[in-house]
Write a structure and sequence with these properties.
This protein is α+β, with helices and mostly antiparallel strands. The protein has 15 helices and 18 strands. Strands 1-3-2-6-5-4 form a 6-stranded antiparallel sheet. Strands 8-7-11-10-9 form a 5-stranded antiparallel sheet, sandwiched between helices. It starts with 10 loop residues before the first strand and ends in a 13-residue tail after the last strand.
Length: 547
């Protein structure tokens, strides 16, 4: 009979067959006599003999008629094919029966195992098999024993074992990270959520000494966490109170930062150093709180900017009235002086300064959205030249400033004031990136749609474009900064040094006019902002007159 038994009564005994090669115990081989048959017919239990020969073949040498009640099998059937009996054992209990037999054979000790039987007539019944092994002179290992029907008194599940099983199930299914360490500070267990959250396995962090530098790579922060952790453990132990939760930032195996609430639960009443560590990840909560604070700050900032815009609009209109007087008086004065009069040069400087102030005022009004835009087909080169004439005065003298334009530039359709605003924001942004000496290059060129297919956004028009680029060799930006550079209120400059609206305004104007923006940047090497505006099929109008 094979183990697990099959249909062959002379099959292998299974995992404990090798024990039959051990030394033998001299014991007489007995056969059932008439007196045994008489006794076996009246006892209320199954009596049976199970034997395994030196080659590992197993069979039932004897069983009484009570086998019928327990297994719904005749004695002759069991003796002829013991596999029939084991086929009635519940599959979930086969391992228990096999293990009990093996242990009994190895130790030559009593066999005691309780298991379920699938009885075709009665359904599931419980059986308890008790037997004592002996080794006969010919090498056979024989168990003489009984099987009792214990269905009315099934085995009681060990509550401690049940609690441990339930505890393990809860811990392993929990969305909270758990870890166990023993008295020697060895990490003895990490639940699946711990591995998912932090990436570390037990092989990565076998001890707390391995955990600290991985979780807290900064030495000063690590020491502060260790000190605070120890202080709270000591307080918890001395006061017999719960461990006070500690908020810490842990570095994962992948290099990410996770914000967690950490606390420890001692594993014994007498604190020995072994405890369960609970790490509750609150990263998303803290990010949501930070996002809410940013929204509140942005709303407040937006309200201040709106108020400033209204004020700027009122001031701008007043400035325009005063500038009109200045420009008018200058024009009258110019008519009264000759070409060689030395006052004429001063008057021309005054007129130029007033015109520059008027241009700045128009940009301020447009930025405050107090002036309706009026797109028209223009020559980009003439408008850029006019804007650069003003910008050269605000660019740091130590910076090298260059401007180039391709031949035969196509016309574009945009409000001239908006174009100047775009260029102003880009050049000032490049100037800030230089932080002193460096170079800024403004370039304009025609670009066919075939040349920019790889960067053309899905919603962009499939046409030719005119590209206005501003290049600097300043500090550059990381990929994370580039990804957010057009977000409203986002700025890498110190608080109070920028509104975070410059580049978002650029992006909004360009998209409003059917174009798109491309950014390339490398930390330490500089940035390139490229503005692509659609080519207009109509010819450009005459350059706008200065007002």
């Amino acid at each position: 009979m094979a183990w697990p038994p099959g249909g062959d009564s002379a099959a292998r005994a299974g995992p404990f067959g090798h024990v039959l090669q051990a030394g033998s115990i001299n014991a007489p081989r007995t056969d059932a006599g008439d007196h045994l048959h008489a006794f076996a017919s009246v006892v209320p239990v199954v009596m049976l003999t199970y034997r395994v020969d030196p080659d590992g073949n197993a069979s039932f040498a004897y069983c009484n008629a009570r086998i019928k009640e327990l297994f719904d099998l005749e004695p002759a059937e069991v003796v002829q094919d013991g596999g029939l009996l084991f086929a009635r054992v519940d599959p979930d209990d086969i391992a228990d029966v096999s293990g009990a037999l093996e242990q009994s054979a190895l130790a030559m000790g009593p066999l005691s195992v309780t298991f379920r039987v699938r009885n075709p007539r009665r359904g599931t019944v419980w059986a308890k098999w008790r037997a004592t092994p002996v080794r006969e002179a010919d090498g056979h290992l024989v168990w003489h024993g009984v099987m009792a029907d214990v269905t009315e008194h099934p085995p009681v599940v060990d509550p401690i074992a049940l609690n441990e099983s339930q505890f393990r199930f809860i811990i392993e299914a929990s969305p909270i990270a758990y870890a166990l360490n023993d008295e020697q500070q060895n990490i003895t267990y990490l639940n699946p959520e711990f591995v998912r959250t932090f990436g570390y396995t037990q092989r990565d962090i076998p001890t707390l000494a391995d955990w600290w530098p991985r979780a807290y790579p900064d030495p000063s922060y690590r020491q502060s966490v260790i000190d605070e952790w120890g202080r709270r453990l000591t307080t918890s132990r001395a006061s017999q109170t719960a461990f006070e939760p500690l908020e810490v930032t842990i570095r994962t195996k992948a290099g990410d930062q996770r914000i967690v609430i950490a606390y420890a639960v001692p594993l014994a009443e007498a604190f020995t150093g072994a405890h369960l560590v609970v790490l509750y990840d609150i990263t998303k909560v803290r990010e949501a709180e930070a996002g809410q604070r940013r929204l509140i700050e942005q709303l407040s900032h937006s309200q201040r900017v709106e108020s400033l815009g209204r004020l700027a609009g009122g001031v701008a209109h007043d400035n325009n009235n005063m500038l009109a007087v200045i420009l008018g008086k200058v024009e009258l004065a110019l008519r009264q002086v000759g070409k060689d009069d030395r006052l004429r040069s001063d008057l021309l400087d005054i007129r130029q300064a007033a015109e520059d102030v008027a241009s700045l005022t128009r940009q301020l009004v447009a930025y405050a959205r107090l002036e309706t835009t009026a797109p028209s087909v223009i020559s980009i080169e003439s408008e850029v030249q006019a804007a650069l004439a003003m910008l050269r005065r605000v660019i740091d003298k130590s910076a090298r400033f260059t401007h180039s334009a391709g031949a035969g530039l196509w016309p574009i359709c945009i409000d001239a004031t908006q174009l100047r605003q775009v260029l102003t924001n880009l050049v000032l942004n490049a100037t800030d990136a230089l932080r002193g000496a460096g170079s800024i290059a403004v370039a304009i060129e025609n670009v066919s749609q075939e040349a920019i297919l790889s960067i053309l956004p899905p919603d962009a028009a499939p046409t030719d474009y005119v590209c206005l680029s501003v290049t600097d060799d300043g500090c550059g930006m990381s990929e994370d900064v580039v990804a957010r550079v057009f977000e409203p209120f986002f700025s890498t400059k110190p608080r109070g040094k920028a509104t975070g609206l410059g580049l978002s305004t650029v992006y909004g104007i360009v998209r409003q006019n059917g174009g798109f923006v491309s950014v390339r940047s490398t930390v330490g090497e500089g940035s390139v902002f490229s503005i692509y505006l659609p080519r207009s099929a109509e010819p450009a109008a005459a350059p706008s007159a200065t007002q």
